[in-house]
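To: structure subgroup
Subject: Chain for Friday's discussion

All,

I'm putting the inputs and outputs inline so they're searchable in the archive.
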Amino acid sequence: MTEQQTDPATDAAVGSQHRSWVRLRTLILLRWAAIAGQIVAIAVAVQFFTVQIPFGLVSATIGIAVIANLVSSTLFPRNTRLNERQATGILVFDTLQLGLMMLLTGGIHNPFMVLILAPVTVAATALSTRSTIMVGAVAIAATSLVTWVNIPLQTATGVLQMPDLFVFGLWVSVTISVGFIGLYTRRISSEMRSMSEALLATQMALSREQNLTDLGGVVAAAAHELGTPLATIKLVSSELVEELDGDDELRDDARLIGEQADRCRDILQSMGRAGKDDMLVKHAPLIALIEEAAEPHRERGKALEIEITCTEADPLDQPILMRRPEIIHGLRNLIQNAVDFASTKVWIELCWNDERITIRILDDGKGYSPQVLGWIGDPFIRRRKSQAEHGQRQAYKGMGLGLFIAKTLLERTGATLHFANASSPYTGRPHPREKSGAIAQVEWRRDTRGLEAKNTSGALGENIHFTHDAG
């Protein structure tokens, strides 16, 4: 079993592939800082250390960077954001400009050679792996070139030159640093970006569930308020049908009014299923909450069974939980994941005592593969699918955030989640109608704040629809 997919709306909003956008102004400011540093370094070297450099060529190289900045600032608005290709082109240009500066000022013997790592770090932070490799390759090529081809730095005492062993060691050091820093920075920024996207998807899922919960309350109130007017319309139409025996056309119209009133009542009943009555909008018994979370997946071809497994649990004294969107959506995602990969059946086991409430979701599928089991709950889990797995979940194509969203939302309510396989050792084969697949366990301490509804009064029942007997 692999990570569950999110719904298409979430996927469309977040995007299955992250695209980085970099502000042009940011790169322009960084380039101005590099230009200022180059000018200061040359001035100090010439003034205080009497270093001889090809001043004309160095000035022209710095001038190219200045012109590039002035053109960019003039032609593009201040809030311009660059796409992947444009940002890569600018960083490659900066790398080549710095490489040319090194070639004119001693090459690898110049202590400022390490600055060639800067464009690679920026690329690894803001751009894709492909762009980072491109900028890193240019940096390594420029470093290699200026190691063997350069204009030596000369002072009044002679040429500044390191021993060959130091030259080779510095070249290896810079080359390895380009790869290591690029890889390290890229990995960290990628994980941060993935977590940011996953949290955004989680927030969207929670917002959607909150809207549905609010809508359920509105529908329940509407069903309650409209029950009496619809019943009155039904009563009056029935009386008109009896009194209009001599006018078939008017009698048919009166009968139509009654039928439409019945239709409105049925629509409100259907829409109000998620709302129940006003009290259930706020809290519900544990089993009712599980039924609500499981309802969208009951018609997907897999049997769903809810059972109380611990002997000390009294069905008549079950916990009354707050109908928090985090709980409903989190449990719904766990149930969806089980239904997606079950062979024929999914079990939802409930158990509670004075200290804890435990929910276990099991299926008769293959279970979690050992490669995935240790990573469950992390966003964007990716692994190579076997040939047998291709074609599964054709209706659920997303980013694999389902279990991450479920874990994040349920942990916000104080729950502790555990994932395991029912069968040991792992076989990778389903066992229909046996509790041999994956296990997702959710557990709360009953003293968790905001979990249970306190001081509830009155029955929790369906919406009451008032009707009048036409007879």
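Points worth raising on Friday:
Residues 1-18, 274-280, 384-399, 458-471 have pLDDT under 50 and may be disordered.
The first strand starts at residue 22 and ends at 23.

D.
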